[in-house]
Specification:
two-stranded antiparallel sheet; extended
Length: 410
Protein backbone atom coordinates (compact mmCIF):
# COMPACT_ATOMS: atom_id res chain seq x y z
CA UNK A 1 0.00 0.00 0.00
CA UNK A 2 1.36 3.42 -0.96
CA UNK A 3 2.17 6.23 1.42
CA UNK A 4 -0.51 8.37 -0.29
CA UNK A 5 -3.22 5.82 0.59
CA UNK A 6 -2.06 5.72 4.25
CA UNK A 7 -2.27 9.51 4.66
CA UNK A 8 -4.36 10.95 7.46
CA UNK A 9 -5.37 14.48 8.44
CA UNK A 10 -2.69 15.93 10.70
CA UNK A 11 -5.38 17.80 12.71
CA UNK A 12 -8.31 15.39 13.25
CA UNK A 13 -6.61 12.08 12.35
CA UNK A 14 -9.24 11.05 9.81
CA UNK A 15 -8.04 8.67 7.07
CA UNK A 16 -8.23 9.52 3.37
CA UNK A 17 -11.20 7.19 2.81
CA UNK A 18 -13.14 8.97 5.60
CA UNK A 19 -13.04 12.41 3.99
CA UNK A 20 -13.84 13.88 0.58
CA UNK A 21 -10.62 15.86 0.31
CA UNK A 22 -7.20 15.64 1.88
CA UNK A 23 -4.77 18.42 0.98
CA UNK A 24 -1.07 17.70 1.28
CA UNK A 25 1.43 20.15 2.75
CA UNK A 26 5.19 20.01 3.26
CA UNK A 27 4.99 18.04 6.50
CA UNK A 28 1.34 16.97 6.79
CA UNK A 29 -2.21 16.89 5.47
CA UNK A 30 -5.51 18.66 6.22
CA UNK A 31 -9.07 17.56 5.39
CA UNK A 32 -11.98 19.78 4.21
CA UNK A 33 -13.66 19.57 7.65
CA UNK A 34 -10.64 21.02 9.42
CA UNK A 35 -10.29 23.68 6.69
CA UNK A 36 -13.89 24.82 7.38
CA UNK A 37 -13.30 24.94 11.14
CA UNK A 38 -10.02 26.80 10.69
CA UNK A 39 -11.73 29.36 8.45
CA UNK A 40 -14.42 29.98 11.08
CA UNK A 41 -11.72 30.55 13.70
CA UNK A 42 -9.93 33.01 11.42
CA UNK A 43 -13.17 34.96 10.82
CA UNK A 44 -13.89 35.12 14.56
CA UNK A 45 -10.35 36.25 15.34
CA UNK A 46 -10.45 38.93 12.62
CA UNK A 47 -13.76 40.23 13.98
CA UNK A 48 -12.29 40.38 17.50
CA UNK A 49 -9.15 42.08 16.19
CA UNK A 50 -11.27 44.59 14.28
CA UNK A 51 -13.13 45.59 17.45
CA UNK A 52 -9.81 45.88 19.27
CA UNK A 53 -8.48 48.05 16.44
CA UNK A 54 -11.55 50.28 16.73
CA UNK A 55 -10.93 50.75 20.43
CA UNK A 56 -7.28 51.57 19.78
CA UNK A 57 -8.05 53.96 16.91
CA UNK A 58 -10.91 55.83 18.59
CA UNK A 59 -10.06 57.76 21.74
CA UNK A 60 -13.05 56.50 23.70
CA UNK A 61 -13.88 59.27 26.17
CA UNK A 62 -16.61 59.48 28.79
CA UNK A 63 -19.26 62.24 28.43
CA UNK A 64 -17.67 64.42 31.14
CA UNK A 65 -14.26 64.03 29.49
CA UNK A 66 -15.70 65.07 26.12
CA UNK A 67 -17.43 68.06 27.74
CA UNK A 68 -14.24 69.12 29.53
CA UNK A 69 -12.27 69.07 26.28
CA UNK A 70 -14.99 71.02 24.49
CA UNK A 71 -14.75 73.64 27.25
CA UNK A 72 -11.15 74.31 26.15
CA UNK A 73 -12.27 75.38 22.69
CA UNK A 74 -15.94 76.40 22.87
CA UNK A 75 -17.11 79.17 25.19
CA UNK A 76 -20.58 78.91 26.71
CA UNK A 77 -23.25 76.70 25.11
CA UNK A 78 -23.30 74.47 28.20
CA UNK A 79 -26.53 72.63 27.37
CA UNK A 80 -25.49 71.94 23.77
CA UNK A 81 -22.06 70.64 24.87
CA UNK A 82 -23.63 68.33 27.44
CA UNK A 83 -26.19 66.92 24.98
CA UNK A 84 -23.52 66.46 22.30
CA UNK A 85 -21.14 64.75 24.73
CA UNK A 86 -23.76 62.19 25.75
CA UNK A 87 -24.90 61.59 22.16
CA UNK A 88 -21.37 61.06 20.84
CA UNK A 89 -20.44 58.80 23.77
CA UNK A 90 -23.53 56.63 23.23
CA UNK A 91 -22.86 56.46 19.49
CA UNK A 92 -19.32 55.16 19.85
CA UNK A 93 -20.26 52.92 22.80
CA UNK A 94 -22.79 51.33 20.44
CA UNK A 95 -20.17 51.09 17.70
CA UNK A 96 -17.57 49.40 19.91
CA UNK A 97 -20.11 46.97 21.40
CA UNK A 98 -22.12 45.72 18.41
CA UNK A 99 -23.67 42.76 20.26
CA UNK A 100 -24.83 39.57 18.57
CA UNK A 101 -27.64 38.70 16.18
CA UNK A 102 -29.49 36.86 18.95
CA UNK A 103 -29.80 39.89 21.25
CA UNK A 104 -33.31 41.35 21.43
CA UNK A 105 -32.19 44.93 22.08
CA UNK A 106 -30.66 46.64 19.05
CA UNK A 107 -28.96 49.97 19.69
CA UNK A 108 -29.81 52.49 16.98
CA UNK A 109 -27.63 55.46 16.17
CA UNK A 110 -28.73 58.97 17.05
CA UNK A 111 -27.85 61.67 14.55
CA UNK A 112 -27.83 65.22 15.88
CA UNK A 113 -29.46 68.45 14.65
CA UNK A 114 -28.01 71.75 15.90
CA UNK A 115 -30.02 74.96 15.59
CA UNK A 116 -28.28 78.28 16.15
CA UNK A 117 -27.43 81.60 14.57
CA UNK A 118 -24.38 82.10 12.38
CA UNK A 119 -21.13 82.10 14.33
CA UNK A 120 -22.44 80.47 17.53
CA UNK A 121 -20.10 77.46 17.25
CA UNK A 122 -22.01 74.66 15.47
CA UNK A 123 -19.16 73.73 13.12
CA UNK A 124 -16.52 74.20 15.81
CA UNK A 125 -18.30 71.77 18.14
CA UNK A 126 -18.46 69.02 15.49
CA UNK A 127 -14.88 69.60 14.34
CA UNK A 128 -13.52 69.56 17.91
CA UNK A 129 -15.33 66.31 18.75
CA UNK A 130 -13.98 64.57 15.64
CA UNK A 131 -10.45 65.72 16.40
CA UNK A 132 -10.50 64.60 20.03
CA UNK A 133 -11.92 61.16 19.10
CA UNK A 134 -9.41 60.69 16.26
CA UNK A 135 -12.03 59.79 13.65
CA UNK A 136 -12.35 60.96 10.03
CA UNK A 137 -14.40 64.13 9.66
CA UNK A 138 -15.81 66.10 6.76
CA UNK A 139 -17.95 69.21 6.38
CA UNK A 140 -20.43 69.65 3.54
CA UNK A 141 -22.85 72.40 2.61
CA UNK A 142 -26.37 71.00 2.18
CA UNK A 143 -27.24 73.66 -0.39
CA UNK A 144 -24.98 72.12 -3.08
CA UNK A 145 -26.83 68.80 -3.07
CA UNK A 146 -29.72 67.95 -5.39
CA UNK A 147 -31.94 64.98 -6.09
CA UNK A 148 -31.20 62.76 -9.07
CA UNK A 149 -31.77 64.47 -12.42
CA UNK A 150 -30.97 68.01 -11.29
CA UNK A 151 -27.75 69.98 -11.73
CA UNK A 152 -25.61 69.77 -8.61
CA UNK A 153 -23.90 67.15 -6.45
CA UNK A 154 -25.38 63.79 -5.51
CA UNK A 155 -25.86 63.40 -1.77
CA UNK A 156 -23.53 60.37 -1.96
CA UNK A 157 -20.63 62.78 -2.56
CA UNK A 158 -20.76 63.31 1.21
CA UNK A 159 -19.29 59.84 1.57
CA UNK A 160 -16.64 60.47 -1.08
CA UNK A 161 -15.41 63.43 0.98
CA UNK A 162 -15.40 61.33 4.14
CA UNK A 163 -13.51 58.55 2.36
CA UNK A 164 -10.92 61.06 1.17
CA UNK A 165 -10.61 62.44 4.73
CA UNK A 166 -9.91 58.85 5.88
CA UNK A 167 -7.11 58.44 3.28
CA UNK A 168 -9.35 56.00 1.41
CA UNK A 169 -9.54 53.64 4.41
CA UNK A 170 -13.12 52.33 4.13
CA UNK A 171 -13.17 50.90 7.67
CA UNK A 172 -12.06 54.23 9.13
CA UNK A 173 -14.57 56.18 7.02
CA UNK A 174 -17.40 53.94 8.23
CA UNK A 175 -16.89 55.16 11.80
CA UNK A 176 -16.38 58.83 10.96
CA UNK A 177 -18.43 61.98 11.48
CA UNK A 178 -20.13 64.05 8.77
CA UNK A 179 -21.16 67.64 9.51
CA UNK A 180 -23.92 68.75 7.16
CA UNK A 181 -24.11 72.54 7.31
CA UNK A 182 -26.97 74.83 6.32
CA UNK A 183 -29.52 72.03 6.52
CA UNK A 184 -32.19 74.71 6.92
CA UNK A 185 -31.54 76.01 3.39
CA UNK A 186 -33.03 72.86 1.83
CA UNK A 187 -36.34 73.28 3.64
CA UNK A 188 -39.52 73.82 1.64
CA UNK A 189 -40.30 77.50 1.36
CA UNK A 190 -44.04 77.10 1.72
CA UNK A 191 -46.93 74.75 2.40
CA UNK A 192 -47.51 74.04 -1.30
CA UNK A 193 -45.17 71.38 -2.77
CA UNK A 194 -46.06 72.43 -6.32
CA UNK A 195 -43.40 75.15 -6.60
CA UNK A 196 -40.40 73.88 -8.60
CA UNK A 197 -37.86 75.17 -6.09
CA UNK A 198 -39.69 73.45 -3.25
CA UNK A 199 -39.91 70.15 -5.14
CA UNK A 200 -36.14 70.25 -5.63
CA UNK A 201 -35.57 71.01 -1.93
CA UNK A 202 -37.88 68.23 -0.79
CA UNK A 203 -36.26 65.85 -3.29
CA UNK A 204 -32.88 66.61 -1.73
CA UNK A 205 -34.28 65.86 1.72
CA UNK A 206 -35.72 62.58 0.44
CA UNK A 207 -32.35 61.65 -1.07
CA UNK A 208 -30.69 62.09 2.33
CA UNK A 209 -33.03 59.75 4.22
CA UNK A 210 -31.43 56.37 3.50
CA UNK A 211 -27.96 57.82 3.90
CA UNK A 212 -28.77 59.09 7.39
CA UNK A 213 -30.58 55.98 8.58
CA UNK A 214 -27.97 53.51 7.40
CA UNK A 215 -27.45 51.67 4.15
CA UNK A 216 -24.77 50.36 1.79
CA UNK A 217 -23.84 53.02 -0.74
CA UNK A 218 -21.60 52.63 -3.78
CA UNK A 219 -19.60 55.82 -4.24
CA UNK A 220 -16.92 56.97 -6.70
CA UNK A 221 -13.75 57.42 -4.59
CA UNK A 222 -12.54 60.35 -6.69
CA UNK A 223 -15.89 62.15 -6.62
CA UNK A 224 -18.09 63.38 -9.43
CA UNK A 225 -21.30 61.98 -10.86
CA UNK A 226 -21.69 58.22 -11.15
CA UNK A 227 -21.30 56.53 -14.51
CA UNK A 228 -21.26 52.82 -15.50
CA UNK A 229 -17.53 52.53 -16.23
CA UNK A 230 -16.40 54.21 -13.02
CA UNK A 231 -14.72 52.31 -10.20
CA UNK A 232 -16.93 52.23 -7.10
CA UNK A 233 -16.31 51.71 -3.38
CA UNK A 234 -19.06 50.40 -1.11
CA UNK A 235 -19.55 52.23 2.19
CA UNK A 236 -21.91 51.20 5.00
CA UNK A 237 -23.40 54.33 6.60
CA UNK A 238 -24.93 52.56 9.62
CA UNK A 239 -22.10 53.62 11.92
CA UNK A 240 -21.39 57.06 10.47
CA UNK A 241 -22.53 59.83 12.81
CA UNK A 242 -24.29 62.69 11.01
CA UNK A 243 -24.40 66.08 12.72
CA UNK A 244 -26.42 68.76 10.94
CA UNK A 245 -26.48 72.44 11.67
CA UNK A 246 -28.45 75.43 10.50
CA UNK A 247 -29.21 79.01 11.46
CA UNK A 248 -32.96 78.53 10.85
CA UNK A 249 -33.28 82.28 10.60
CA UNK A 250 -36.72 83.31 11.81
CA UNK A 251 -37.54 80.09 13.64
CA UNK A 252 -37.97 82.14 16.81
CA UNK A 253 -41.15 83.60 15.30
CA UNK A 254 -42.52 80.10 14.76
CA UNK A 255 -41.68 79.16 18.36
CA UNK A 256 -43.29 82.35 19.66
CA UNK A 257 -46.44 81.75 17.61
CA UNK A 258 -46.67 78.18 18.96
CA UNK A 259 -46.10 78.92 22.63
CA UNK A 260 -48.62 81.76 22.59
CA UNK A 261 -51.29 79.27 21.55
CA UNK A 262 -50.16 76.39 23.79
CA UNK A 263 -49.78 76.18 27.58
CA UNK A 264 -46.13 75.88 28.64
CA UNK A 265 -46.74 74.29 32.02
CA UNK A 266 -44.79 74.71 35.28
CA UNK A 267 -46.33 78.14 35.75
CA UNK A 268 -44.49 79.66 32.77
CA UNK A 269 -46.04 82.68 31.10
CA UNK A 270 -45.41 83.14 27.38
CA UNK A 271 -45.52 86.92 27.81
CA UNK A 272 -42.52 86.78 30.16
CA UNK A 273 -40.28 84.96 27.66
CA UNK A 274 -37.60 87.15 26.12
CA UNK A 275 -36.66 86.83 22.45
CA UNK A 276 -33.19 85.42 23.22
CA UNK A 277 -34.78 82.66 25.33
CA UNK A 278 -37.18 81.41 22.65
CA UNK A 279 -34.79 78.71 21.42
CA UNK A 280 -35.04 77.09 24.85
CA UNK A 281 -38.55 76.01 23.78
CA UNK A 282 -37.44 74.59 20.40
CA UNK A 283 -39.28 71.43 19.32
CA UNK A 284 -39.34 69.18 16.22
CA UNK A 285 -42.68 70.77 15.38
CA UNK A 286 -40.93 74.13 14.86
CA UNK A 287 -38.32 72.56 12.57
CA UNK A 288 -41.15 70.96 10.56
CA UNK A 289 -42.93 74.31 10.29
CA UNK A 290 -39.68 75.79 9.00
CA UNK A 291 -39.69 73.40 6.04
CA UNK A 292 -37.93 70.14 6.89
CA UNK A 293 -39.99 67.04 6.11
CA UNK A 294 -41.03 64.83 9.07
CA UNK A 295 -39.07 61.84 7.72
CA UNK A 296 -35.83 63.85 7.76
CA UNK A 297 -36.50 65.24 11.22
CA UNK A 298 -37.03 61.67 12.41
CA UNK A 299 -33.49 60.80 11.26
CA UNK A 300 -32.20 63.41 13.76
CA UNK A 301 -33.64 62.22 17.07
CA UNK A 302 -31.35 64.51 19.06
CA UNK A 303 -32.33 68.15 18.66
CA UNK A 304 -30.53 70.94 20.49
CA UNK A 305 -29.79 74.61 20.05
CA UNK A 306 -26.96 77.07 20.55
CA UNK A 307 -27.66 80.36 22.29
CA UNK A 308 -26.97 83.74 20.64
CA UNK A 309 -23.65 85.22 21.76
CA UNK A 310 -23.68 88.36 23.88
CA UNK A 311 -20.77 90.78 24.35
CA UNK A 312 -19.36 88.93 27.34
CA UNK A 313 -19.34 85.60 25.49
CA UNK A 314 -17.73 87.18 22.41
CA UNK A 315 -14.97 88.71 24.50
CA UNK A 316 -14.27 85.37 26.16
CA UNK A 317 -14.19 83.69 22.73
CA UNK A 318 -11.69 86.32 21.59
CA UNK A 319 -9.31 85.72 24.49
CA UNK A 320 -9.85 82.47 26.43
CA UNK A 321 -9.95 79.28 24.28
CA UNK A 322 -6.76 77.35 23.51
CA UNK A 323 -7.06 78.44 19.90
CA UNK A 324 -8.47 81.92 20.56
CA UNK A 325 -7.99 84.56 17.88
CA UNK A 326 -5.72 86.65 20.10
CA UNK A 327 -3.46 83.66 20.71
CA UNK A 328 -3.40 82.87 16.99
CA UNK A 329 -2.46 86.41 15.94
CA UNK A 330 0.08 86.67 18.77
CA UNK A 331 1.72 83.49 17.49
CA UNK A 332 1.74 84.77 13.89
CA UNK A 333 3.54 87.96 14.93
CA UNK A 334 5.84 86.00 17.23
CA UNK A 335 7.08 84.04 14.20
CA UNK A 336 8.30 87.40 12.86
CA UNK A 337 9.90 88.13 16.26
CA UNK A 338 7.31 90.79 17.09
CA UNK A 339 5.45 91.00 20.41
CA UNK A 340 1.75 91.73 19.80
CA UNK A 341 -0.60 93.02 22.50
CA UNK A 342 -4.07 94.56 22.74
CA UNK A 343 -5.37 97.02 25.31
CA UNK A 344 -8.78 96.51 26.90
CA UNK A 345 -10.56 99.25 24.96
CA UNK A 346 -9.32 97.84 21.65
CA UNK A 347 -10.82 94.47 22.57
CA UNK A 348 -14.10 96.15 23.52
CA UNK A 349 -14.15 97.90 20.14
CA UNK A 350 -13.67 94.58 18.30
CA UNK A 351 -16.47 92.94 20.29
CA UNK A 352 -18.84 95.90 19.75
CA UNK A 353 -18.30 95.72 16.00
CA UNK A 354 -18.93 91.95 16.01
CA UNK A 355 -22.25 92.57 17.76
CA UNK A 356 -23.13 95.32 15.26
CA UNK A 357 -22.49 93.09 12.27
CA UNK A 358 -24.41 90.15 13.82
CA UNK A 359 -21.91 87.55 12.62
CA UNK A 360 -21.20 86.01 16.01
CA UNK A 361 -17.76 84.57 16.65
CA UNK A 362 -17.08 84.33 12.91
CA UNK A 363 -17.26 88.12 12.67
CA UNK A 364 -14.43 88.51 15.18
CA UNK A 365 -11.87 87.18 12.70
CA UNK A 366 -13.07 89.47 9.91
CA UNK A 367 -12.75 92.51 12.16
CA UNK A 368 -9.31 91.46 13.44
CA UNK A 369 -8.13 90.94 9.87
CA UNK A 370 -9.36 94.41 8.92
CA UNK A 371 -7.41 95.92 11.81
CA UNK A 372 -4.20 93.90 11.46
CA UNK A 373 -3.79 93.46 7.70
CA UNK A 374 -1.60 96.55 7.22
CA UNK A 375 0.66 95.50 10.10
CA UNK A 376 0.93 91.93 8.79
CA UNK A 377 1.84 93.34 5.37
CA UNK A 378 4.49 95.85 6.51
CA UNK A 379 6.15 94.38 9.60
CA UNK A 380 7.86 91.32 8.00
CA UNK A 381 9.94 93.76 5.90
CA UNK A 382 10.83 96.01 8.84
CA UNK A 383 13.28 94.29 11.18
CA UNK A 384 13.36 97.28 13.55
CA UNK A 385 9.83 96.73 14.84
CA UNK A 386 9.86 94.42 17.85
CA UNK A 387 6.58 95.33 19.53
CA UNK A 388 3.08 96.27 18.36
CA UNK A 389 0.34 97.36 20.75
CA UNK A 390 -3.19 97.63 19.38
CA UNK A 391 -4.94 100.58 21.03
CA UNK A 392 -8.53 101.67 20.60
CA UNK A 393 -7.52 104.58 18.35
CA UNK A 394 -5.33 102.29 16.19
CA UNK A 395 -8.17 99.77 15.86
CA UNK A 396 -10.73 102.44 14.97
CA UNK A 397 -8.42 104.05 12.40
CA UNK A 398 -7.57 100.80 10.62
CA UNK A 399 -11.14 99.50 10.72
CA UNK A 400 -12.56 102.75 9.31
CA UNK A 401 -10.32 102.36 6.24
CA UNK A 402 -11.35 98.75 5.59
CA UNK A 403 -14.00 97.55 3.17
CA UNK A 404 -15.81 95.86 6.06
CA UNK A 405 -16.60 99.23 7.62
CA UNK A 406 -18.52 100.24 4.47
CA UNK A 407 -21.05 97.43 4.91
CA UNK A 408 -24.38 98.26 6.49
CA UNK A 409 -25.10 96.75 9.89
CA UNK A 410 -28.79 95.99 9.70
Amino acid sequence: MSKKQNSTCSFCGRKREEVNMLIAGLDGHICENCITQANELVVQEESHSHNMDLQEDIKFLKPQEIKNKLDDYVIGQEDAKKILSVAVYNHYKRLLNPGSDTEEVELEKSNILLVGRTGTGKTLLAKTIAKMLNVPFTIADATVFTQAGYVGEDVESLLTRLLQAADYDVEAAQKGIVFLDEIDKIGRKGDSPSITRDVTSEGTQQALLKLLEGTDVRVPPQGGRKHPDQKMVEIDTRNILFISGGAFDGIERLIERRIKTQPLGFGANSEDIEEDNLLDFLSPQDVKSFGLIPELIGRFPILTHLNPLDKEALKRILTEPKNSLLKQYTKLFELDHVQLSFDKKALDFIVDKAVDYKLGARGLRSICEAILTDAMFEIPSNKEIKKLKITESYAKNKFSKSKLSKLKTS
